[in-house]
Structure formats: structure tokens, C-alpha cells
Amino acid sequence: MKKSCLLALWMLLPVLPVAAQQIMYSNLKELVEERGDTLTTLRIEKRTKNQIYLMGGADYRVTVDENPGLCRYLKSRCYAVRMDTSLYVNCRKMRYKRYRFGQWYAPAFWLGGKVYFCAQPVGQAATSTMAPGDATRLGGEVGDALHASGLVHARVYYELDPETGKSDFVSRERMLQLLEPHPALRARFEKEKSESAEVIGQYLRALRSLAMNH
């Protein structure tokens, strides 16, 4: 009888709700040190394509129900949040050269001591990388803004250096550098033609998987 009761209990355990680990980091130092404030009420939702097109910004919205004060903090001052193993950085805090990414959060992960996040192409990433090589380009911020507006749903990867707080575009050249210790992966990547997040992300995740297995 006892054995059957224990068996029934073990069968029920996998379906019992488990609270997700939610951590809020107020700045880059806290993120690096993995020292943030633990919460239990964060809600992360994927923004629709229409929302992104009309209002700009990143792919994820982070809120707390019935707490407008904390919602304002998450939107404007919080640096990053973690939901279990998923990390999201606040694009309002990110910079690529003189360019900003707008509001809301982008998915991110650690790799080799750097943070890689997926966001809209801006600046050089929008004009010289995502646009066709023979396209007529306008100069200056106006030209950059026009090209970026046409790429509102495009995504590329950026590399955040925690020592400087600066972000750089993960270009084809940078990806080749990262793949240098892995000749087979590098050879495969050399056949790729795109620097989109879809392509670059495959190889970043492959490097992350290799790092985790060692």
C-alpha cells in the first residue's frame, strides 16, 4: 500500500507548478556579478510585428501586473532581467556607436565572457551590411534612419563587452574570428552569405553548446 502511494506521488510531481526564477539587474555590474533582485511576478511577452512597426523598439516587453511603479522602472532604468535560463537586456541601455535601439528588451546570452543580444540593425549594420551592395544610399543620420525603417523586422547580433559597456556588430569578419578555433564550423560558415541573426545565431549557439560541453 505504501509503495503504491509513493508511486502515485512521484507520478504527480512532474506536473506540479514550479516557480520560475526571476532576477532583475539594475546595472551592468550586477549582471556580470549575477547579483540582482529576485522577483516572482515578472511577465515577459513577445511584441507583435504591428507593435514593433508602429512604435519601434525590441522584441520583448517586460512588465509586472498591477505595479505601475515597477513597470516604469523595468521600462526605463532596469538593465536586464533573467527568467530561469533566459536572459533579456534592456535596449534602452544598449548602444552601438552613436546609435540607440529604442525601448523594450532583446533576447541575450553569455558566451566567452561577452553578452550577445539580438536586435534591429542600426547604423553601419543597417546601411552597409543588410542593404544590397549596389543600393543607392543616403548619407548621415537621415539615410541611416530610412534604411533602418525598412529593416524594422530584420535582426542581427551584437556583442556587448562587459568591461567597457560598449556593443559591436557581429559581422561576418567577427564571426570568422570567433570560429577560428573550430575549423569545421568556420569552413561551413565561409559558405554563408548573410549576416542576419538567423545565420549568425546558428553559429553562436553552436559555440555556446561546445563551451557548455567542455
Any overview of this molecule?
- There is one protein chain.
- The protein is α+β, with helices and mostly antiparallel strands and 214 residues long.
- Helix content is 37%, strand content 25%.
- The protein is built from 9 helices and 12 strands.
- It has helices at 2-12, 28-33, 49-55, 68-76, 124-130, 140-149, 172-178, 183-189, 197-212; strands spanning 22-25, 37-39, 42-46, 60-64, 80-83, 86-90, 95-96, 99-100, 105-111, 114-119, 156-161, 166-169.
- The strands form 3 sheets. It has an 8-stranded antiparallel sheet. It has a two-stranded antiparallel sheet with strand order 3-4.
- Strand 9 (105-111) and strand 10 form a beta hairpin.
- The radius of gyration is 20 Å and the shape is globular.
- The N and C termini lie far apart (46 Å).
- 27% of the residues are buried.
- Residues 1-18 and 131-148 have low confidence and may be disordered.
Task: Provide tags for this entry.
8-stranded antiparallel sheet, disordered N terminus, globular, alpha+beta, 214 residues, two-stranded antiparallel sheet, 25% strand, single chain
Widest beta sheet: strand line-up = 2-1-5-6-9-10-11-12
Helical amount among residues, as a percent range? Answer: 25-40%
> Which consecutive residue ranges, at least 5 long each, have pLDDT under 50?
1-18, 131-148
Overall structural class, as computed from helix and strand content, comes to: alpha+beta
- Count of strand segments: 12
SSE ordering: HEHEEHEHEEEEEEHHEEHHH
Euclidean distance between termini CA atoms: 46 Å
Mean pLDDT: 83
The percent range for strand residues is 15-25%
CA radius of gyration: 20 Å
